[in-house]
Amino acid sequence: MCFFSKTEYAEVFLPLSLDDTTEDRAAGTISIEASGAFMGARRYCYATYSINTKYLDETDEMYGLLMNSPEITVKVIFKIRKGKVKDFKIDLNSLAEACRDDRFRSLGLLCWGLNDKSYSEFDKK
User: Fold this and answer.
1) Which of 52, 85, 91, 96 could, after both became Cys, cross-link 106 (CB 3.0–4.6 A)?
2) What is the pLDDT along the chain (125 residues), one digit of tens a residue?
């Protein structure tokens, strides 16, 4: 009997979408979702990031890069334990390369969620 199982990591590239809200922009945050099939299920990897204070006056420009590049794919690193996905990380270097903008490397993770449906399907009341 094994009480400890080795944690594994898997890297996949998934398409990215932007959750563009006035509240996020005003707060200096960016919320994005990478989604796609992984390990036999559709995964929705949602994350909200704070924009580095030295780039706050460039928030609209950063949003513009994400909105005007609908074909962005980013590397997502999944953490797997006992055959189940436990966590994920959107690789910010991959995001910066996809947007051709190093400002995205300095985003700070505020919150995240690994969901079975998209943020756009949640009631936003």
Assistant:
1) 52
2) 456 678 999 999 999 999 888 888 889 999 999 999 999 999 999 999 999 999 999 999 999 999 987 789 999 999 999 889 999 999 999 999 999 999 999 999 999 999 988 888 876 54
Tokens of 28: 């200096």
pTM of the model: 0.88
Q: What b/e string do you get for 30-54 counting C-beta neighbours within 10 Å, with b at 16 or more?
A: bbbbbbeebeeeebbbbbbbebeee
Q: Which of 98, 105, 80, 76 shows the shortest CA–CA distance to 89?
A: 76
Please tell me the distance from the alpha carbon of residue 55 to that of residue 106, in angstroms, as a whole number.
9
Residue with tokens 């949003």: 63
Side chain identity at residue 48, one-letter code: T
Per-residue tokens: 15: 């398409």
AA letter at 5 = S
